[in-house]
Structures are given as C-alpha cells and as structure tokens.
Amino acid sequence: GRSSSCCRGSSLDRPSVAPPLPRRRAASPGAMRPLTDEETRLVFEKLKKYIGQNLRQMVERPDGVHLFRLHKERVFYMSERVYKLAGHIPKKSLLSAGVCLGKFTHSRKFRLSITSLDYLARLAQYRVWLKPSGEQHFVYGNHVVKAHLRRITEGAPKNAGVVVLNEADVPIGFGVTARSTAECQGAGAEALVVYHQADVGEYLREEADLV
After folding, report:
1. Total-model pTM
2. Three-state secondary structure call for residue 93
3. pLDDT of the residue at 10
4. What Rg value do the Cα atoms of the chain yield, rounded?
5. Count of Cβ atoms closer than 10 Å to residue 81 Cβ
C-alpha cells in the first residue's frame, strides 16, 4: 500500500534495489523451474499408470496452456496465468502454486501425493468402490482386502493404478491392484486386492508434509 505510493517521492525508499528481488530469486537454484526430460518421463510414467492415455487431457487442454513445474522437489501443475503470478513471489515465501501432483524422493523416484487425487479421479482408467467398513479401514492407511470390496472396474489388470471411492462415489484415495478383476472374484475374504498408496486421511495425519 503505502510504500508503493511513496516510492517516487521519498528518498528513504530504494526502488532501484527492491523491485528486482523477485526476478533474481526466480532465477536462482531451487526456484520453480521446468522439469528436465528425465523428470518429465518419471512424472508422466507414474501418471499414466493411473490415467493412461487420458494424460493427453492434462497436457493438451482446451482451456489454455497448463504447465508442470518443479519447486523444492515437488511437482506442481498449473495454468500459465497462475505460473506468471507465482513468479512475483520470492521462492522462500512460495509454498504452493496450482496443484501439487507429487514429489521426488532422495533416490529421484517420483511419488504421487494425495493432493493429485482430483485429477486422478476424473481421468482414472480403473476404480474400486469400498463398503463403509472398508472405507474407514482404508483412510487409516491400510490395504484393501476382498471383504471390504464393493465392486471394481471390469477388466482391471494386476498391478494397475486404481482410484478408490466410497459407496457415494466420493474419491478417498488411490492404490495399486494386487489382483486383477477376474482374480478378485475367486479370492477369499481376507485376500489383498488393492495396495494402499495414498488416502484423504493424510490431510490430518501428515498435514505438515503436504506442502
């Protein structure tokens, strides 16, 4: 407010020093930047495990250019407009911009975060629906067993990425199939059917680590 209106007239202000700071910070190491080819490959491979060819809907959007950017080892997905606005914020002050899809581990593997659920749920190839008892079990961070399974997408293979929903069709997380749809039908009540990867309970359990 006040400092911007008095910049021209007051000798106490230092407009020659203050305005360039955001630009210098944006160019420094660790600032939000485009993904390298290898990072892009790892991110796209993981996304395709869940959404398959629907990845194209994230890359080529009719509502304007959207970008994948890296900031503090986390991958963010945002519109070009949001990216430009984020460029005005010093990197030390910037926590998040757009949607955090996941992060790179110390060993440079990419892991999807629960914050990516909205996109995964809309574009997923395969889904599983849980009974109420299974829903509570899953959002506490546990794998899904056959007894908790209400239904599963027809034709889902083993080791496929799946979005997990409750009976009201609300997405509550995602995981990886331990058995194909056909194998689930003949499995026992305690047989594992989905390996847990992330759930909405993390917003409470791991709040400090999400951004």
Report:
1. 0.79
2. coil
3. 42
4. 22
5. 11
